[in-house]
């Protein structure tokens, strides 16, 4: 696990003095929705290896022994004679959750203010005054307890119920020029209203174009917005400014909340642990004065100091010591810079295709062919050397994983990113030295829950940064994206049902990274711990509560969208399942999603218990 930096705050120090626990401070940011949380205590990390040594324990301040979300630790002591370790005064990683103010629009239903994020393994949360139905505001308290029910953290936040004025409006004016191409931008101005005064924009200049691949084939187009200067939209991502934003049309998803649900899960998993998942908000869009329907406003997946925090190459800089954002993308050849990793071409996905089709034989694992995949470079690069550098790096990381699982030995990368024998004796230590395994577990968990049909096809991101101020010195997975074809909104047998494992199987567009990771000697046991934290932090319950809140509070907005597009209860190419024909109202589509997610949880609870 990556080292965690301890911060000292007077309140937390005081709590530590009262409870006898060392406390790692929690970062603050966002909010959530639910009621009582617990997680299983972890086994002790103390092990006895000798009954002969008369131990002489000496305090060790190795910061690599900071607690993680699945492992509590305290002050470390090491025997100067035999090297045995012990820990005293348990401490917990309190950096991966937050408890912050949140507002709900009045819909005559109870709303819950809860912690958002990951509660440490072995801890519980109790709430006071966190439920409200009527308009107004109240202060809620969240208390976190360790496995001995000693208080280790306490936070306060306000839950607000406000007048229901519907979704914010985004008004785009292109001087009546059509927006039809995903290659060519059209000049525009953008305004926002029906929102807090602080978030109102008036005639902000920029450009707009269409975006997406399959979604571009629908009548209701998704859009990419690029402002002339960095601008925040509707307070997203704590007011962070950026030029690029995205409007997701959600035409293929009749619940219109699948991406928002995945973003909620992604925020909870990533946004408090030096990683990133897009912020989001449902909005109504008007184009040249005409109503265009409900969209989800989201952030562009990009290198940015407030988004994916890698150091992108300065204009015309050709050195390789920069950050790289990479997308596993079967359409990568349509990008300016791309490369492939692996061997053998999989022609089976194309009409008349029938296997690897000659050339290099694909790598195989457990009898399954791991065909090569294409990757697009999504950050600015200015030389072929930079492309060759990241290709060589990712290829060798990939084969370090493959060789470890295939039984060909343990390898790491040297200073030139070439494979060399690992100095470590275990798969875990070897792979964790070159890949952020915590990010792998979390990304796997999200995709395993959602059963995203595109998991091995596209919109799957990873990043690494070779600059001197890098936050990502290892390959890191994150920035989850594109979940409209997931969670039962798919007619393929692998994705439609809510039961069974998904990412570990040889199915459809399977992800070779996940397929290999699952077969390491450590993955299953450690993943169960991450799943336990996810399960007991009630993250899924918060996500389904959000889906139901959107459907209830914005009922008339969704109805207006379907009056415009008339696609409710229709089969939308290419994956929509037949069950969609039964949807008479927007709430029907949301109910189907939340029922699927609930059933999915029951299945995974049994698989990973």
Architecture overview:
- The protein has 609 residues and is an alpha+beta fold.
- Helix content is 23%, strand content 25%.
- The strands form 8 sheets. A 7-stranded mixed β-barrel has the order 14-15-16-17-18-20-19.
- Strand 4 and strand 5 form a beta hairpin.
Summed up, what is this model?
The chain is α+β, with helices and mostly antiparallel strands. Helices cover 23% and strands 25% of the residues. Helix 3 packs antiparallel against helix 6 (437-450), helix 3 packs antiparallel against helix 10 and helix 10 runs antiparallel to helix 12.
Set out the fold topology.
Layout lengths: L9 H10 L2 E2 L13 E2 L18 E4 L12 E7 L5 E8 L4 E2 L3 E4 L5 E2 L3 E2 L6 E5 L2 E2 L3 E10 L5 E12 L6 E5 L12 E8 L7 E10 L12 E9 L4 H4 L2 E7 L9 H13 L9 E8 L2 E10 L23 E6 L9 E4 L21 E3 L2 E3 L2 E5 L6 H23 L4 E3 L5 E3 L5 H6 L4 H14 L9 E6 L10 E3 L14 H4 L15 H6 L5 H14 L2 H15 L1 H11 L20 H22 L2
Parallel strand pairs: 1-5, 7-13, 14-19
Antiparallel strand pairs: 2-10, 3-4, 4-5, 6-9, 8-11, 10-12, 12-13, 14-15, 15-16, 16-17, 17-18, 18-20, 19-20, 21-25, 21-28, 22-25, 23-24, 26-27, 28-29
Helix pairs in contact: 3-6, 3-10, 10-12
């Amino acid at each position: 696990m990556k080292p965690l930096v301890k911060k000292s705050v007077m309140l937390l120090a005081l709590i530590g003095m009262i409870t006898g626990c060392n406390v790692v401070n929690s970062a603050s940011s966002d909010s959530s929705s639910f009621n009582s949380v617990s997680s299983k205590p972890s086994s002790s990390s103390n092990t006895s290896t000798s009954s002969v040594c008369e131990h002489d324990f000496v305090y060790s301040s190795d910061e690599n022994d900071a607690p993680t979300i699945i492992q509590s630790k305290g002050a470390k002591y090491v025997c100067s004679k035999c090297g045995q370790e012990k820990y005293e005064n348990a401490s917990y990683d309190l950096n991966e959750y937050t408890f912050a103010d949140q507002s709900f629009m009045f819909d005559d239903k109870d709303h819950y203010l809860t912690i958002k994020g990951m509660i440490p393994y072995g801890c519980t949360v109790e709430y006071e005054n966190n439920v409200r139905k009527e308009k107004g505001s109240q202060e809620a308290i969240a208390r976190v307890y360790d496995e001995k029910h000693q208080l280790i953290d306490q936070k306060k936040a306000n839950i607000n119920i406000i007048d229901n004025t519907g979704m914010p409006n985004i008004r785009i004016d292109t001087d009546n020029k059509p927006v039809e191409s995903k290659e060519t931008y059209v000049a525009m101005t953008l305004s926002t209203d029906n929102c807090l005064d602080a978030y109102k924009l008036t005639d902000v200049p920029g450009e707009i174009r269409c975006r997406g691949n399959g979604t571009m084939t629908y009548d209701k187009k998704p859009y990419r917005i690029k402002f002339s200067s960095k601008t925040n939209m509707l307070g997203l991502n704590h007011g962070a400014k950026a030029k690029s934003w995205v409007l997701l049309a959600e035409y293929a998803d009749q619940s219109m909340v699948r991406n928002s649900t995945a973003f909620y899960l992604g925020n909870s998993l990533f946004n408090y642990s030096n990683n990133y998942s897009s912020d989001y908000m449902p909005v109504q869009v008007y184009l040249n004065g005409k109503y265009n329907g409900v969209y989800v406003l989201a952030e562009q997946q990009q290198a940015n100091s407030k988004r994916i925090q890698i150091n992108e190459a300065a204009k015309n800089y050709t050195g390789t010591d920069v950050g790289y954002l990479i997308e596993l993308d079967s359409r990568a050849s349509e990008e300016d810079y791309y490369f492939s990793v692996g061997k053998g071409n999989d022609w089976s996905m194309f009409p008349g295709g029938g296997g690897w089709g000659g050339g290099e034989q694909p790598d195989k694992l457990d009898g399954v062919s791991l065909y090569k995949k294409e990757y697009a470079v999504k950050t600015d690069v200015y030389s072929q050397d930079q492309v060759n550098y990241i290709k060589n790096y990712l290829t060798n990381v990939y084969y370090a994983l493959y060789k470890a699982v295939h039984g060909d030995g343990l390898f790491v990368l040297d200073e030139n990113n070439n494979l060399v024998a690992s100095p470590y004796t275990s798969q875990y230590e070897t792979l964790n030295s070159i890949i952020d395994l915590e990010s792998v577990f979390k990304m796997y968990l999200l995709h395993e829950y959602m059963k995203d049909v595109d998991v091995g096809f596209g919109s799957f991101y990873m990043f690494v940064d070779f600059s001197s101020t890098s936050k990502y010195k290892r390959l890191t997975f994150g920035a989850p994206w594109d979940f409209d074809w997931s969670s039962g909104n798919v007619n393929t047998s692998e994705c439609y049902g809510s039961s069974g494992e998904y990412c570990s199987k040889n199915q459809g567009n399977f992800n070779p990274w996940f397929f290999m990771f699952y077969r390491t000697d450590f993955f299953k046991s450690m993943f169960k711990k991450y799943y336990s934290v996810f399960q007991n932090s009630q993250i899924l319950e918060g996500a389904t509560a959000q889906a139901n809140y959107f459907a209830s509070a914005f009922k008339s907005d969704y109805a207006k969208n379907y009056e415009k597009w008339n696609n409710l209860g229709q089969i939308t190419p290419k994956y929509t399942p037949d069950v969609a024909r039964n949807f008479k109202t927007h709430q029907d589509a949301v109910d189907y999603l939340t029922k699927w997610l609930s059933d999915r949880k029951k299945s995974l609870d049994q698989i990973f218990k």
